[in-house]
Design a protein that fits this description.
With about 140 residues, this protein is mostly helical. The chain is about 90% helix and about 0% strand. The chain has a domain of about 100 residues.
Length: about 140
């Protein structure tokens, strides 16, 4: 019977949540990008330019969704391997920074942000970092 490090279970749970959220978010972003292109084609060039600007916002969202999906996948795959604990901790810190930058980007572009959604993402990122830190501590 093998014993897993204390942070492995936490990392796997948070990793699965990030994978699910990343897939959902990516689907929403792709749907938004497709609908913007359709509306821009139908409406004409002036309104089309507004939708191109909005597509930049969608592109940022897609980039963050892919990063979220990748970090979740890495957590699920590497949670049991203590050699990757430090790498996973850096991924978690990177997610925190990425979510802060994304929230500030959306706030600057729209003047408002869903702070509850970002609060949940910040908490999940913090749990990701804590799980990786627990694994790193167990590896020493």
């Amino acid at each position: 019977m093998s014993m897993e490090a204390k942070g492995s279970t936490l990392l796997k749970v948070v990793g699965y949540i990030f994978v699910i959220l990343g897939i959902l978010s990516l689907c929403i972003q792709i749907g938004g990008l497709i609908s913007d292109d359709i509306i821009a084609t139908v409406q004409g060039s002036v309104i089309g330019e507004l939708f191109i600007l909005d597509s930049g916002t969608l592109a940022v969202g897609m980039l963050v969704s892919v990063a979220e999906l990748a970090a979740g996948y890495m957590a699920v795959k590497m949670a049991s391997n203590l050699l990757y604990a430090r790498t996973l901790r850096y991924y978690g810190i990177g997610l925190l920074v990425l979510f802060v930058v994304e929230a500030l980007f959306y706030f600057g572009a729209n003047g408002n942000v869903s702070w509850i959604a970002y609060g949940i993402l910040f908490v999940l990122s913090a749990l990701y970092v804590i799980g990786a830190w627990m694994n790193e501590k167990a590896a020493k």
